Amino acid sequence: RASSWATRYAAMPELCDKGNLARMIASFQDLVGEGTFAFSPRTWVLPEQLEELKAVVGKSSKTFIVKPEDGSQGDGIFLVQGVRDLDIKLSCKANKSGVAQRYLDKPLLHRGFKFDFRVYVAFIGGSESAPPFVYLCREGLARFCTELYEEPSQKNMHKCMGHLTNYSLNKRSEQFEHSGETVDAVFSKSTQSSKRPLTVALQQIAEERPDFRPEEFYGKVTDCVRSTAALMAPVLQAAGRELHTGGELRSCQVLGFDVMLDHRGEPYLLEVNNSPSLCIDEALPLDEAELAEAA
Q1: Do residues 201 and 115 lie in contact, with contact meaning Cβ atoms separated by under 8 Å?
Q2: Within 13 Å, how many C-alpha atoms sit on residue 86's CB side?
Q3: What is the structure's pLDDT at 95?
Q4: Interhelix angle for 214-240 vs 18-28, to 10°?
Q5: How far apart are CA 164 and CA 167, in angstroms?
Q6: pLDDT at residue number 197
Q7: For residues 273 and 256, is the Cβ–Cβ distance under 8 A?
Q8: Angle at Cα 93 formed by Cα 91 and Cα 95, nearest 5°?
Q9: Would you say the C-alpha torsion 192, 120, 220, 15 has a positive or negative sign?
Q10: pLDDT tens digit string along 278-292?
Q11: What is the mean pLDDT of residues 182-202?
Q12: What is the pLDDT of residues 37-54, one digit of tens each?
């Protein structure tokens, strides 16, 4: 029906694919101002850039992280140091398609724990001549590891709950801290839950680091989202021409931008999720006064 809206954009899954996103950013690096994509860690698409990756790894003492093309929720991710380490771990994989990135070995920590942010971004509408409207939600999630962070070495690279922030991995740990049982407890600045509101985590970081300013964080993430959306918009417009009448894109979709801060507080975009989990794991009872107001 002409009046109907779809909750997905055609071509969005392909645009959010780790390899495709890396290819797009690499293609546009020379067409835009220096530093436009500084938020993106250096990335190699596998297997097509495997030899180039090996040449870099062989000359570097740094750590690299490899993510499978079809992986999700932390499955199949591993860290490597050196070409031999890379070859051994890749040989264990039936599907070698994926991406490799420079690992952020000096992330910003809170109380010694590594974390990242799930930032929600809404794409709405658009047309053949205009890109979709893009909205950044100021609330999101902060996801913490359940083991204290140590810089990667051959002795600890296997400790995924100290290096990978994925909720699906860390919730299995006995050290996982659940959220409070009330809304006030969830949004308390004293919470130490392993998954907490983004706004709460930003306040906690600002208290721990006087030089950290949440508004500067939002500004830098906005620039990151703007540049990424600009890459996606022409493809979304072209893909929607055959599906929408009158030139209007009657689609909307929420994406999950996974962002990590380095030790200086600079944000890096780790990946964009086409279908971020919005499930509720811990339901909280509503206050009777809130129910009355809603009625």
Answers
A1: yes
A2: 26
A3: 79
A4: 100
A5: 9
A6: 96
A7: yes
A8: 120
A9: positive
A10: 877 776 676 677 667
A11: 94
A12: 999 999 999 999 999 999
